[in-house]
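Q: Hi! First time doing this. I have a protein sequence and I read that you can turn it into a structure. Is that right? Here it is:
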Amino acid sequence: MDTDPASTLQLRLRADLKVAMRERRAGEISCLRSLIAAIDNAQAVPLGELHQAYVVRQFGDDAVEVPRKALSDAELTGLIDREISDRTAAARELRELGQAERAARLTEEVAVIDRYVSARR
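A: Yes, that's right. Below is the predicted 3D structure, encoded as structure tokens:
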């Protein structure tokens, strides 16, 4: 079983996503999905030159499976900090443009993400 920080966080995010979906908390659902996707993207393995040609494989063919990149604690912290700073900056810009409702949604997302930051520190 994976015990790297990203895998541990993703398990918690997915469990919290299920709860948010059951309770129909749309803003939290969107935020959690976005955070899970950001971690998934950061764990993607670079393709390299060998994988540029598309080859059709049988379902379950082990030849196409590669392990995901394990994120260090520092990489994961940096990713979460970027997610928070991007949303904070976007919320500030939206407020300046008079779009307070959209800014408030982003501020709520920052609060959701911040729960995971404070739990990690």
